[in-house]
Amino acid sequence: MKEKVNELKKEALEKIEKVTNLKEINELKVEYLGKKGLVSELSTYLKDLDLNEKREFGMILNNLKTDLNNAIDSKIEYFEEQELNQKLANEEIDITLPSTKILVGSPNILEKVVEDVEEVFMAMGYDVVDGPEVEEDHFNFELLNIPKGHPARDAQDTFYLKGDEILLRSQTSPVQARTMLAAGGDKPIRMICPGKTYRRDADDATHSHQFMQIEGLLVDKKVSLADLKGTFEVVAKQLFGESCETRLRPSYYQFTEPSVEMDISCFACKGKGCNICKHTGWITVSGAGIVHPNVLRNCGYDPEVWTGFAFGFGADRIAMLKYGINDIRTFYQTDLREVDNFDRLEAEN
Ligand code: DAH
Predict the structure, then answer these.
(1) Upstream peptide bond of 151 is cis (omega within 30 degrees of 0)
(2) CA distances in angstroms from 47 to 42, 44, 51, 250, listed in the order given
(3) Model confidence pLDDT, tens digit, residues 40-69
């Protein structure tokens, strides 16, 4: 019996020694130490032995079990460690490899221009207000002294959404009317309203059916064109630099009287004449004027008591000129090559 045990032990240890992977060693474990394994099989002899023999053989079997278990477990441990090392070696990170570029977003440069303008006006006590992009004809035109059928409407080829009452605002000027009506006709107002505007223009390098205006309105007592000029001068110098000159030219808008165009001296050639200013030395940045008495009246302000000035900047135009962008569509498309460029342009400026 002892011999049988020794033989089995020898054979098992040899097999264990030869094993080459975790799977094989686990199979051996089942073969020898499993419930129906070879060692269990040997214990079936116990029942035929007398008490002394039983004790002795029992001990021998126990020792066999322990020895095989130890041998198998140390192999398992060995293979597991090997597997782990292999895994770690495979997952090793080579920190000398070049990293992958992480794409980060950057603000649209048009937003940057709007923010700059907002900052300058806020410092002068203006509120920044918002208005709806889907607007009523009443606010977009009628309250602004442009009745139905008036030829001034032709200049703003409008997107109508529902009959002839609901439209996409063709200008931010309706926010003037909304602000005056909300103020109730008895308080001074200083506000600007940046926002998207829409016209049925065919898109090309200088036209977009969607564009960005910044409306401004000041209402108070005894406001004159000189106040508008002074305000414009301060704003222009802050936005375009101390050397920036300004001038007003007569113009026509239905909602202002008198109306003007506001020009700045060309920031590229300092007024000498270049491609940007079409060799005039001047760049028009805004329409403006003294709020028409009809508009004040329509919006609840008594024109005998209150006066005001208003203006409308074309934000796209300012951004294009300032950053040398020659296609307005750049602002509204999502070409990442252009968006990446915005960062560079801003850094250079
Ligand atoms: N709304 C005008 C436009 O789209 C711009 C403008 C001109 C706004 C004069 C004004 C203003 O408030 O007084 O062409």
Answers:
(1) no
(2) 11, 6, 10, 122
(3) 888 888 888 888 888 988 899 899 999 999
Using alpha carbons, select from 172, 309, 285, 308 the residue that is nearest to residue 236: 285
C-alpha torsion 173→178→180→184, nearest 10: 170
Show the tokens assigned to 330.
């750049």
List the 134-136 sheet strands across, edge first.
134-136, 166-168, 160-162
Atom 3 (ligand 1) nearest CA: 171
Give the domain 109-348 fold: BirA Bifunctional Protein; domain 2 (3.30.930)
- Rounded Cα distance between 318 and 236, Å, is 11
CB of 195 closer than 6 angstroms to any ligand 1 atom: no
The predicted model scores a pTM of: 0.72
| Residue 256 CB–ligand 1 contact under 6 Å | yes
| Cα atoms found within 13 Å of the Cα of residue 301, Cβ hemisphere only | 29
Residue whose CA is at the smallest distance from ligand 1 atom 12: 311
145 DSSP assignment:
T
**Cβ–ligand 1 contact at 211 (below 6 Å):** no
Q: d(Cα 60, Cα 269) in Å, to the nearest integer?
A: 105
pLDDT at 252 over 90: yes
- Please report, for the chain, the start and end positions of each structural domain, with discontinuous segments joined by +: 2-90, 109-348
Structure tokens at 273: 């004449």
Query: Are 192 and 117 spatial neighbours (Cβ–Cβ below 8 Å)?
Result: yes
